[in-house]
Amino acid sequence: MAENISDRNGRALEFAIVNTLIKKIPNLALLGGTLADQQRDSVKFAALAEPQQTHFIDSAETIFTWLASKHTINSGKITLERLSDDAAKKGDVTDIRLVIAGKIVNLSVKHNHTALKHQRPTATATQGGFAKKSLEDIKYRADYKKITDAFLNSAAQLKNGAVEFSELKVIQADFIDTQLYAPMCKLVTDFLNLHVAQQPYAQQFFSFIVGMTDYHKIIVYSDKIDIHEFAAMPPAQSLKAMQVGNSYIHVRFSNGWVISMRLHTASSRIKGVSLKFDTQLLDVSTPIELSPMEI
Q1: Does 138 share its domain with 170?
Q2: Which residue range forms the structural domain that includes residue 71?
Q3: Ramachandran assignment for 115, one of left (phi > 0), alpha (psi -120 to 50 degrees), beta (any other)
Q4: Are residues 76 and 186 in the same domain?
Q5: How many CA atoms lie within 13 A of 148 on its CB side?
Q6: Do 125 and 76 sit in the same domain of this protein?
Q7: Distance CA 242, CA 190 (A)
Q8: 92-121: pLDDT as tens digits
Q9: Confidence band of 86 (pLDDT split at 50, 70, 90)
Q10: Residue 5 in contact with residue 53, Cβ under 8 Å?
Q11: Max CA-CA distance within the chain?
Q12: Does residue 95 sit in the same domain as residue 52?
C-alpha cells in the first residue's frame, strides 16, 4: 500500500509541475505521451487531500521561479516531455525534459525521498555491464539461486508452511538478516569487487545507479525544496564495494561518489524471495548545487 501511495504522490507532483509550466511558459510544445500522461495523472492529483494539492501547486510555482531565474523562457519555442519509467531502467533518470533555446534541461522529481535507485540484486551482473546470459551473468544468477534456495530450506525448517517473512521474525528476530540478507550482500559485494571494479564496468554501474545524463534532482519536502545539480559528472574509473553489517553495501567510486545500498524484501510474502536495494547517495566530492527554498 505504501508503495502505491508513493507512486501516486510522485506522479501527482509531476502533474502539478508540468501543469504549472504549461500555464506559465508561452509557446510550450508537449512531446511524446506527455498530454496523455497529464490526463492520466490529473486523476491522481484530484485524489489528493486539498492541503496536499495546495502544497504541490505552491511547490510547482517555486520550481518555475527557479527555472525562470536560470533560463530565458519568454521567447522562442520550448519543448517539454515527460519520460516513462522505461527510460530510467536504461539509465536516464529524467522525469521531465525541457529544451530551452537549444539547451536540454533534465529534471528528476522526487517527493520526500532521496533515493537514487531501487534496483534488483538479481540483475547485478547486467547492471555492471555484462550481457544477459553471459558467462558472468549465468554464474552470478546460479550463485544467487543457491542463496535463495538455502534460505527457503532453512525457513521451512524454522516454520514449515510459513507464508510471510514476519512469521519467521517472530521465531528468530535475526533469521532473515543472517540467512538471506548477509549472504546476498556478500555475493553482490564480491561480484562488484571481482568483476566490476575497473573500466568499462565501473562506469557502467555508476551510470546505471546515478544516471547517464546531466540532470537536476528536485526533492520536494513538506517545508522546502532541495535542488541538486548532477552535471558534467566525472567518469568512474574504478570502484570498491564494502559490506556493512548484514544488509548494507557501501560503494566508493574513484570520482568521489559514495553510495549506500540497503537490501530489503520487496514483498511481505516468502514465496519468490523478492528483493530490492534502496540506494542512496552518501557523499560526493564534486560540486553539487544545493538550493533549499522555503515554501
Answers
A1: yes
A2: 2-111
A3: beta
A4: no
A5: 15
A6: no
A7: 9
A8: 789 999 999 889 999 999 888 778 888 999
A9: low
A10: no
A11: 69
A12: yes
Question: Does pLDDT of 143 surpass 90?
Answer: yes
- The verdict on 75 and 39 lying in the same domain is yes
Q: Could you read off the pLDDT of 215-242 as tens digits, one per residue? A: 888 889 888 888 887 776 788 999 999 9
Q: Indicate whether 220 belongs to any domain.
A: no
Q: C-alpha cell of 272? A: 519468490
41, 171: one domain: no
Query: What is the Cα–Cα distance from 292 to 28, expressed in whole angstroms?
Result: 27
Name the domain boundary from 90, 111, 132: 111
Q: Using DSSP, how many helices (H) and how many strands (E) does the chain show?
A: 10, 11
Establish whether the linkage from the previous residue to 292 is cis, with ω within 30° of 0.
no
**48: Cβ contacts below 8 Å, ≥ 6 apart:** 9, 12, 56
- Is residue 125 located within the same domain as residue 205? yes
Q: Which residue has the higher pLDDT, 159 or 283?
A: 159
Q: How far apart are CA 286 and CA 206, in angstroms?
A: 15
User: Does any domain span residue 258?
Assistant: yes
Same domain assignment for residues 104 and 126: no
pLDDT tens per residue, range 232-277: 678 899 999 999 999 999 999 999 889 999 999 999 999 989 999 9
Q: Are 220 and 109 in contact (CB under 8 A)?
A: yes
- Average pLDDT of every residue of the chain: 89
> Do the Cβ atoms of 188 and 256 come closer than 8 Å?
no
Decide which of 111, 130, 160 is a domain's last residue: 111
Which residues, other chains included, contact 123 with Cβ-Cβ below 8 Å and sequence gap of 6+?
none
* Residue 123, all three cell numbers: 540483475
Residue 225 located in a structural domain: no
- CA distance linking residue 51 with residue 58, whole number of Å: 10
Cα separation, 31 vs 49, in Å, equals 30
